[in-house]
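Reopening: non-specific serine/threonine protein kinase still failing for me.
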Amino acid sequence: MTWVWTRPLLGRRGSPDWTCQRGAGSEGKVGMAPPKKGSLPKPLPEGFILSDSQKKKWRLGKVIGQGGFGLIYLASEDVGRPVASDTAFVIKMEYLENGPLFTELKFYQRAAKPDKIKSWKRSRRLDFLGIPTYWGAGLAEYDNGSYRFMVIDRLGSDLQKVCERSGGRMKKATVLQLGQRLVSVLEYIHENEYVHADIKAANLLLGYRNPEQVYLADYGLSYRYCPAGVHKEYKECPKKGHNGTIEYTSLDAHRGLAPSRRGDLQILGFCLLHWLCGTLPWDNVLKDPIQVQKAKESLMDHLPHSVKHLSANTEEVAKFLLHVKTLAYQEKPDYQHLQDLLSSGASEGLDFSLSTGPTAGPLNESPEMSSSDEGPEQPTTSPKAEPVDTEEKDEMRTRPVPARYIRGPPLSKPQGAKRADSALPTSSRSLRPRARITYKEHTSEEAEAEEEEEEAEEEEESEDEARPQPISARYLRGPPIGPRPEQV
Ligand SMILES: Nc1ncnc2c1ncn2[C@@H]1O[C@H](COP(=O)(O)OP(=O)(O)OP(=O)(O)O)[C@@H](O)[C@H]1O
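Support: Ran it again with your exact input. Result attached.
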């Protein structure tokens, strides 16, 4: 039996209303003590000294943030005095048995070492790359609890908050500028065998000292799509469908495919659209992942008109999504071309002041359009969904929520419409708080074995004393490797 973290659909982010429920599989594993009720760890005292896997010491300061599983502390390498309020480091800490920090740590250790980032920047002639620097990690014991921690750059406010403060939407030039920068970050991540799989404003943090810099953070859902250069195979697995943040997650994720590069870009496209319009066509059906999937399929099927129809200022994003639609599952995107598509209206810097651009388009029309509405001809190379077994779909629909890990802040409830085809926005045009539901698939033994195998092959695992507790005690996400090579 394994343990699944659950939280009510609209439960408060970081609130103690999590429960731990038993799930199927992995019978009889060692280390099966259920994680403590309420996943947020007990805060460690200010001034606590931690030693990382390289024996470097770190001093804990105040808690400055909390996520679904862990706390963020200010931290300092100068252990002899209290941590200054303007310190450049933070420590992210979770209970040892929790999975997301382990996943995030593996990303940083494999893909975001300072040297690697430095040489990438040199080779690309970049002044800046928006990935926080990783400074170390380790394990700690406190008051009978075991913890994992990771030291990274201290960052500033997240874009969700910034955006809410400035009226909900962003200026078009800023959205396009953000899009370009994120394509550049994604290219780096993708070239290092990873995808992020959870791009959204809440995971974009401004620099602490320089708010002109934007970092893509939170790699808790990141996925190694191409371990040792071998891309995961195309395998739809409806039972693993809808992973990610429901508003933005890719159609691949809805279908239960392992995340890949095109999925990240599609997620980014949905984010850009949201930031521009302040709303998305599936806002009103967020509680029903299948309806969300259908609304996204409809939008992608009817590009570019479906996007242009939402607002007058979406031409570049429509082109962006149209290009993403042409990508095959394993295809390497043309990052330069994607950046070029966004470049025409992009600003130099970022301006988060109130957006006065056109609001989203007609409110009472369906995103599903007749073929005569479609505008320019569609590319013929667009990937087609494999037929989905309706029985499996029904099973997904009725599957009890506790079978998955669900996370998301309360924010406001989506309003109104019951059907995807009437899912056009009805009220607010702003990026106001909303239900953001993240589905995270429950651990599978294949995925765990796969991770173990990959790790065993790596020579660079000197920091592996930070390995997790017995596998079954932690939460892991990841689809199994499919036997069926199916390039779509
Ligand atoms: N490097 C950082 N510097 C400063 N604040 C940070 C840093 N990383 C995260 N935060 C802030 O701390 C809070 C918690 O972040 P964290 O990444 O742990 O969780 P989350 O993304 O909010 O939720 P989840 O754990 O469910 O993914 C957020 O408000 C985030 O903006």
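The pocket of adenosine-5'-triphosphate is lined by residues 64-70, 72, 90, 92, 100, 132, 152-155, 158, 205, 217-218, 220, 407 (CB under 6 Å). If you still see a failure, please send the error message rather than a screenshot.
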